[in-house]
Specification:
mainly alpha; 359 residues; 2 strands; single chain; two-stranded antiparallel sheet; 14 helices
Length: 359
């Protein structure tokens, strides 16, 4: 790597193998990157809607967090396979950080989510620039597995009311899930059937081949049903068409309240990106630079913050699809983001989508 501030973005210890492409000059884009990037975008679009709802945000905000962040991450990413954007764990951490400060789904809550993304981005960029990426190796596997398991339980619980089409009173995640399960008279049966069909389609797609866009097919079924049938259950509803709203008019007075949550998300959320990148680097006997990846993930969150999104991270499922689809360089992530960006002007077609499909 050339001298300068980017020279700090390296770890002293590397796995054995050839050195990965440096930041400059950037690697040439390959045909496989284009194919893989578009394939991932087809999965990311519906996933981003679902993860936004986990974060307590309107579904369309997920599209903003899925457009520019992958492009920004690709500029300095170390792993050629890591796909950046909305992820379940970071979405849940976002919900936990913002729920005490504002009512989920409101304009204030949306603005706080964007500001939180900026905080996460700044923290990660600083960690990478000072060469402290080695801390990613200090996250023990038992701690990460335990935290992930707990997060999985809360994520499932958070989606139970939506899956059943119920509207429980305000409260903690587990309370709302328990209320929805204990009040079957509030269930919307078409929503439940659609959710089961979606789960079945996704599972069948996974069993056939990881590259089969089961999520996209499930969303397509939901859209068709929501459009042609007299579906009365909760739907995605308002999805503004057009480019993300670029703005720094955020609730800066709440910055101090977001500092600690931002640091926690920056560190804990990076465990997922670290695990993905290290796993693939070991498989390919290639090097991986934690400092560069911290900066990459930081830039992604900065892009999300200024474009109306929320904190983002690295995705296990989408990175797997990316590699299986033939990605060769980090530019596959940029292709994914550009594909989502191209979709935004017609995003309104998602409005009839039943929310139970996303759940």
């Amino acid at each position: 790597m050339s001298s300068g501030w980017f020279s700090t973005l390296r770890l002293r210890q590397r796995p054995p193998g050839p050195v990965m492409d440096p930041v400059f000059p950037p690697p040439r884009i390959r045909a496989g990157d284009v194919v893989a990037g578009v394939a991932v975008a087809l999965v990311l679009i519906p996933q981003s809607l679902a993860y936004a709802e986990i974060a307590g945000l309107p579904a369309y905000v997920g599209l903003f967090a899925a457009a520019l962040p992958p492009v920004a991450a690709a500029i300095v990413a170390s792993s050629p396979y890591l796909q950046t954007g909305p992820v379940a764990m970071t979405a849940l951490l976002t919900y936990g950080a913002l729920k005490p400060l504002a009512t989920p789904g409101t304009g204030e809550y949306i603005a706080l989510a964007a500001l939180l993304a900026l905080v996460v981005g700044i923290v990660r960029v600083i960690i990478g620039l000072v060469g402290a990426g080695v801390i990613s190796y200090f996250m023990s596997r038992p701690v990460v597995v335990g935290f992930t398991s707990g997060a999985a339980i809360l994520i499932v619980a958070s989606q139970i009311p939506t899956l059943f089409g119920a509207a429980p009173p305000d409260g903690k995640i587990l309370y709302r899930a328990g209320w929805a399960l204990g009040n079957p008279d509030t269930w919307d049966w078409p929503s439940i059937v659609l959710a089961l069909v979606a789960a079945l389609v996704i599972e069948i797609g996974r069993r056939i081949d990881p590259r089969v866009p089961g999520i996209l097919i499930a969303v397509g079924i939901g859209l068709v049903y929501g459009s042609v049938a007299d579906f009365a259950g909760p739907a995605v509803a308002d999805v503004p068409a057009g480019l993300p709203p670029f703005s720094l008019a955020l609730p800066w007075s709440s910055l101090l309240d977001l500092l600690l949550p931002g640091v926690v998300i920056a560190l804990v959320g990076f465990a997922e990106a670290s695990a993905i990148s290290r796993t693939y680097a070991t498989q390919d006997r290639a090097s991986w630079d934690a400092n560069r990846e911290f900066v990459s993930q930081g830039l992604a969150n900065l892009a999300s913050g200024v474009s109306g999104g929320f904190p983002v991270g690295g995705s296990f499922s989408r990175s797997s699809i990316n590699k299986a689809s033939g990605a060769k360089t980090r530019w596959s992530g940029a292709i994914t983001g550009l594909a989502v960006l191209a979709f935004l002007p017609i995003a309104g077609i998602l409005e009839p989508l039943p929310r139970s499909v996303l759940a």
